[in-house]
Design goal:
α3 (55-62) links the parallel β2 (42-49) and β3 (67-71). This protein starts with a strand and ends with a helix. The chain is of the alpha/beta class. The longest helix is centred in the C-terminal third of the chain and has 27 residues, at 265-291. Strands 1, 2, 3, 4, 5, 6, 8, 10 and 11 form a nine-stranded mixed sheet that branches. Strands 7-9 form a two-stranded antiparallel sheet. The relative contact order is 0.13. It has twelve helices and eleven strands. The chain folds into two domains: 3-240, Spore Coat Polysaccharide Biosynthesis Protein SpsA, Chain A; 264-316. The chain has helices at 13-34, 38-41, 55-62, 77-85, 106-116, 144-151, 156-159, 191-197, 209-219, 244-262, 265-291, 297-316; strands spanning 3-9, 42-49, 67-71, 92-96, 100-102, 120-128, 138-139, 177-178, 181-182, 186-190, 223-234.
Length: 319
C-alpha cells in the first residue's frame, strides 16, 4: 500500500466531513495516476478524541471506508496520531488536520517528491486559507527573537521574515525548498523515518509536537522540505479557537517543555524573561482595551485568566 492518511479530530465534525469528502476524491485521482485501485493505493484512519459533537458515530455511518478509533477521552494530538501510526500499512504516512481540504494533485505531488528525493524524510505541502490567500506553511526552529516577536510584533516586513521564523513568501514560488519544520496540518513522512525515530512525542498534549518530531528527524540525518506545488486548504485553528484561553496556556506549556528538552540553560532563562515581559504587556494591552471599550469585560477577564495560567506554568516548571 502506497499511502496511509491519519486524521485526529476533536469537535470538528462538519469540517472533518468536508475533509473526508475531498480526500476520497483526491485519493481516487492519485490512485488512477499510480495505476492502482483506490483500496490498494491508500487507507484512511480517523482518531476521534472523545468529541462531544457526535463525530465518531457520524464517521461510522457516513464514511464506512474509514478506519475509526474512537477514544473515550481526549488523549491529545500526539498520542492519538501514535495510535494510528502503530497500525497503518502504507509506505508513506500523511498526518492531516480535520480542518483541511486536499486540492488538485497534492497527494501525488507529495508522494512523488519523497520518491524522487531519498534523502528527504518528511515533506509538507503549501497551505492556503479558505479564500485562497497565502498561509505560512514552513518555519524555522524556535529562537529568542521569535519568542520576542510573538509578544511584541513590529513592522510586518520585519516580522514576516526569518526573525519570527517564517520563510519568506518568495521562496514558495521557486519550487520545493528545505525547511526546519512544516506546520503540523499536513506532513508526509516515510515509514522508515518513523521506524528509526519513533512517533510523535506524547510529552506534548498540544502544540510543538511537530517541532520536536522534526528536530529528531533532522538529528537522525534526514532532510525536511516544503513542496509548494502540493496545495492544501487549511481552516487554521478550527479546534483550538473553540477554547482560546485553554489553548494559550497549552501553547506556552508545550514551548517550555520543548525548551527544557533541547535548549541550553541561558536560552531557557532568556525565554522565560521574554514570556514574563510579554504577559505583562498583554495584560496592560487588554486592560487598556477594556477601559476604552474595545474589548468586552468577559474578554478582558478571559485574557487575564489565560495570562495567569501561563505565568503559573512558567513559575512552577523547572528551569
Amino acid at each position: 500500500m502506497e499511502l496511509s492518511v491519519i486524521i485526529v479530530s476533536y469537535q470538528t465534525r462538519d469540517l472533518l466531513a468536508q475533509c473526508l469528502h475531498a480526500l476520497r476524491e483526491a485519493l481516487a485521482r492519485a490512485a488512477q495516476r499510480a495505476g492502482l485501485p483506490p483500496e490498494d493505493y491508500a487507507e484512511v484512519w480517523v482518531v476521534d478524541n472523545a468529541s462531544g459533537d457526535g463525530t465518531a458515530a457520524y464517521v461510522r455511518e457516513a464514511f464506512p471506508w474509514v478506519h475509526l478509533i474512537a477514544n473515550p477521552e481526549n488523549r491529545g494530538f500526539a498520542a492519538a496520531n501514535n495510535q494510528a501510526l502503530a497500525q497503518v500499512r502504507g509506505r508513506y504516512f500523511l498526518l492531516l488536520n480535520p480542518d483541511t481540504v486536499v486540492l488538485d494533485d497534492a497527494l501525488t505531488r507529495l508522494t512523488t517528491f519523497l520518491d524522487d528525493h531519498p534523502e528527504a524524510g518528511l515533506v509538507g505541502g503549501r497551505l492556503c486559507y479558505a479564500d485562497g490567500s497565502f498561509q505560512h506553511s514552513a518555519f524555522r526552529f524556535p529562537t529568542l527573537w521569535m519568542a520576542w516577536f510573538d509578544f511584541f510584533p513590529l513592522h510586518h516586513r520585519l516580522t514576516n521574515s526569518r526573525w519570527n521564523g517564517r520563510y519568506p513568501r518568495a521562496v514558495y514560488e521557486d519550487g520545493p525548498f528545505e525547511i526546519d519544520h512544516p506546520l503540523g496540518a499536513c506532513m508526509l513522512v516515510r515509514r522508515e523515518v518513523v521506524a528509526q525515530v519513533g512517533g510523535l512525542s506524547e510529552d506534548f498534549f498540544l502544540y510543538c509536537e511537530e517541532i520536536d518530531w522534526c528536530l529528531r528527524i533532522r538529528w537522525a540525518g534526514w532532510r525536511i522540505f516544503c513542496e509548494p506545488r502540493a496545495q492544501v486548504l487549511h481552516h487554521s485553528g478550527a479546534s483550538t479557537r473553540q477554547f482560546r484561553e485553554w489553548s494559550f496556556v497549552q501553547l506556552h506549556q508545550s514551548r517550555l517543555r520543548l525548551f527544557r528538552k533541547y535548549y541550553p540553560l541561558w536560552y531557557r532563562a532568556g525565554a522565560r524573561a521574554i514570556v514574563g515581559l510579554g504577559l505583562l504587556a498583554e495584560v496592560l494591552r487588554a486592560w487598556h482595551g477594556s477601559r476604552r471599550g474595545r474589548i468586552s469585560k468577559e474578554d478582558w477577564q478571559a485574557r487575564l485568566r489565560a495570562c495567569r495560567g501561563v505565568f503559573r506554568a512558567v513559575r512552577s516548571a523547572p528551569l
